[in-house]
Amino acid sequence: MTAQTDTPGSVTAVYKVSGMSCGHCEGSVGGEISGIAGVTSVKAVASTGEVTVVSATPLAEADVRAAVDEAGFELVGPA
Questions:
Q1: Which residues, given as ranges, of the chain have pLDDT below 50?
Q2: How is the chain split among helix, strand and coil, in percent rounded to 5?
Q3: DSSP string spanning 46-79?
Q4: Start-to-end Cα distance in the chain
Q5: Residue 69 region by backbone torsions, left for phi larger than 0, else alpha for psi between -120 and 50, else beta
């Protein structure tokens, strides 16, 4: 996971997700990850398979993996 501080009190992480192929896929993954406590924004891009997550604190990879699994996709790992 590439983590960097965007603004004071926020952390940005980029994950690689396999299986996304369209806007609906992006919405499904983004919606599930948005449900994780502390997440303030999610941007999923099907063409690259990357999901950028901004949160108040670093997220546990297990939580992100569970959310991606719930959406029907596979978390490959940090981008």
A1: 1-3, 5
A2: 30, 35, 35
A3: TTTTEEEEEESSPPPHHHHHHHHHHHT-EEEEE-
A4: 6
A5: alpha
CB-neighbour burial class of residue 30 (10 A; exposed 0-12, middle 13-18, buried 19+):
buried
- Number of residues that this document lists for the chain: 79
Nearest to 15 by CA among 68, 56, 70: 68
- The pair of three-digit structure tokens given for residue 26, joined into one six-digit string: 């992006």
- 64, 36 contact by CB (below 8 A): yes
Closest by Cα among 67, 66, 65 to 76: 65
pLDDT tens per residue across span 41-58:
999 999 999 999 999 999
32 token code pair:
């599930």
